[in-house]
Amino acid sequence: MEGNIMTYEEKLQQYKDWIFRRSAYQMALAIIGIDKQTVAPSAGAAYRDERSAYLAGELFSIETDPAMVQLLKELKDDPQIDGDNKRAIELYYKQAMDTMCIPKEEFVAYQKLRDESFDAWIKAKSQSDYSIFEPYLKKIIEVSKKMYRYRNSDKNLYDQMLDDYEPGMTQEKYDVFFTALKERLVPLIQKVTKAKQKNEAFLHQEFPIEDQKKFMIQLLAYLHFDSSWGYQNESEHPFTSWTCENDCRTTTKYVTNDVVSAVLSTVHEVGHAYYEHNVDPKYDGMILSEGISSGMHESQSRLCENYLARTTAFWKYHYPKLQKAFPTQLGNVSIEEFYEAINVAKPSFVRTEADELTYPLHILVRYEIEKGLFNGIISTEGLNETWNKMYKEYLGVDVPNDKVGILQDVHWSDGSFGYFPTYALGTAFAAQYMHAMRKDLDVDTLLSNNQYDVIMNWLKEHIHKYGFRYEAPELMKMVSGEEFNVNYYLDYLEEKYTKLYNL
Amino acid sequence: MEGNIMTYEEKLQQYKDWIFRRSAYQMALAIIGIDKQTVAPSAGAAYRDERSAYLAGELFSIETDPAMVQLLKELKDDPQIDGDNKRAIELYYKQAMDTMCIPKEEFVAYQKLRDESFDAWIKAKSQSDYSIFEPYLKKIIEVSKKMYRYRNSDKNLYDQMLDDYEPGMTQEKYDVFFTALKERLVPLIQKVTKAKQKNEAFLHQEFPIEDQKKFMIQLLAYLHFDSSWGYQNESEHPFTSWTCENDCRTTTKYVTNDVVSAVLSTVHEVGHAYYEHNVDPKYDGMILSEGISSGMHESQSRLCENYLARTTAFWKYHYPKLQKAFPTQLGNVSIEEFYEAINVAKPSFVRTEADELTYPLHILVRYEIEKGLFNGIISTEGLNETWNKMYKEYLGVDVPNDKVGILQDVHWSDGSFGYFPTYALGTAFAAQYMHAMRKDLDVDTLLSNNQYDVIMNWLKEHIHKYGFRYEAPELMKMVSGEEFNVNYYLDYLEEKYTKLYNL
């Protein structure tokens, strides 16, 4: 840029101003998104969607401003730049390169399509009718492909998507991962299925939502998720969103005939919230807080959900309170029976309500469908039937309708392809993190003693505070002292279920 | 603009694109504002406030874009422009002229100050400590004055503020209005105070909020305020906000020892919501829907609250349901006793809980304080004591603390000076509208028969659908066939309270 030679300090200032502008639009879009998914009146959706797409376009213009991209390019190679900013600028630069190749009007139209597709999914799910959603799914897949093709990369489209959610991951690597899972889990599941079945019917009595909400108040207090930095709402599909470290929102969904669904989804989402809350505040508004990979994020939410909230130690504290909230329903159920019931492994058709053992198979179905969709092997037409067939094959269950079948998850409605596999990967990460944590902390005693904050603090110091400063493999070495090893996860499952079912 | 001569159609298209851009930022700011006042975690306020101030600045830049202001100037005098757009463009042009004189950085700083001042007010109110809020109030008054001075108008500052909320109104006109009120209401209040007092203690028993919420569900159904176009949340100070005709949000506040507070505030806010909902959709996103004057808006909310919800006819439908919700508290209270109790006229210190008769005096206190503040007669220091003194003088009550004294209202915290008088004016408008409505409809029968929608439809056809197409005086003539006459209001109050108290 001739005639416009800036000093390093001027460049840094321009870069910081740019981050601020970017974060203002991101904040607006985050709040509009939370609003949309929680309380916004449905008839106003079209009006709002059109305008939030416009604002997303404004953000797009900021993110891909050629002068800024040039500045990022210069800054990332400047010897004066510190490590934090170097990492951030590399991420910003990559993001800009991936985005700026897309014509703005197509980007805006895609944002609008995502919103419309979400609205169609809500409608389709409420009517349990895949045909309402199918045209949107077809369109959003077509447009997603087009967006990725603009990058003009040699890499396979779906590999690019996988890499966006978890840097470094590919179909090849996920295939290896899922093969390892199948090898040890399928025989284990078969053994469990043949073993003596546990009683879990009492979990599915009528639990009035009002009473569940009262129990929730004390659960949120236990989690230290308070109104100074967080807020829990309700939505069709639980999620977490945030604007900064001190503004993390979660949602849950109450199910009348399932007393643990809202509890586990709450612990899961608050796990996500803690990650953002605990990122070093110096990264506020920066890609180092907002860009954390999905696998890493899911590792924290699923660590909380599975490795903390599905333990006897956790329920030692909570179960007496739950019994008090539901004396008729649970008064005669012992904590041992309750613990066994919430850990029953039984193939089912709803992912978010699945047990730990069969859960990865739910992910496998989605991963294989996504692979098929983006490699041109599967089409959206009749995909509900394909879905049901795969559930029969992998989990041995008959999906009764689209609502609990292909329409159960929000992800495809907003174009989040490549996200699902990170749930399984993150769960596997979490096992290795837990192994490391247990060397430092007596986790069970802390859980029973209402000291959840001590556990969260360990996660903060070892994982959360870094935000996206490091990628998963590097962080894994820092935390556990070794490379990611799927066997921590498989050993954990084998040990837990062998014991639980006396195999 | 040489070398850039546009056709009329091109100008019109530019104007429409500009309205769209404008409406996108307005929508974002409305949703961020609703979020802030209802659920947003407090510790994130500073982060959010800074960014919403930036977005308000972006809106400012759009609104005051010199090329657009020039275009508006040309369009408003173009003979081809239709009546709707002519009116809208005149309003846009006036707004731009009033705003563009302010330096953008000062405007942005002012938006931030408003948010910070709101946060301080929340804190001050919760601690009942005016001294926490005083520095912000002082600052926001100073800055407001500065903003208005930029307009370089000959008119008195406070007159300009009054005109912004209700076009055409001035201190002179309000003085005449309030004098008329005082002349007839002060003796009436004296007579009522001397008359035999009604029992209303039963309204102030303990009414668990949970049970109030259950009653609320059926009230909202009666009002036809459903989730397709509206949503009710809770907030410290009830308000209504909207993004378009099909997205109108209200809040209410539940008070444990007041069974009608949330009911009346709900009917009030939903009255505002109906106004926006019923504006002709062709005005969506335009100043003709969003710019409706405060007096006109308050006329509709207070029409619903006072002239509909404080009647026997309304409670004929609702009271049996309220009794069912609170059998212990209200089982032995007849509907006649209940009606009398909710209409008891008794000087008190909280405006939003005041009766119809003494309500205008609460407004008078605020009006006189605002006049004093902006004419340099009163200062913010010790204003809580000034407040308390005036309450003693006008209403004869001793204000026990700042929380229910000077800190009770949100308005001054966000710089809404000149708004309060429109509450009284709007209430007076409403009396004249009701007089017109009663010629066409049997309002009482409709209220008792669960036909609230018929009444709302009359308001839609006669008032709401026009949005801000006409100013209050013109609309008043269209609806009632005559000029605004304060005596409709005073006659109504005199008749109602003479009967109620057997004067």
Automatic annotation (TrEMBL), chains A, B:
Keywords: Carboxypeptidase, Hydrolase, Metal-binding, Metalloprotease, Protease, Zinc. One of its GO terms (biological process) is proteolysis. PROSITE patterns: PEPTIDASE_M32 (PS52034). Its cofactor is Zn(2+). Zn(2+) binds at residues 268, 272, 298. Binds 1 zinc ion per subunit. It catalyses: Release of a C-terminal amino acid with broad specificity, except for -Pro. GO terms for molecular function: metal ion binding; metallocarboxypeptidase activity. Its EC number is 3.4.17.19. The active site is at residue 269. Broad specificity carboxypetidase that releases amino acids sequentially from the C-terminus, including neutral, aromatic, polar and basic residues. Belongs to the peptidase M32 family. This is Metal-dependent carboxypeptidase. It comes from Solobacterium moorei F0204.
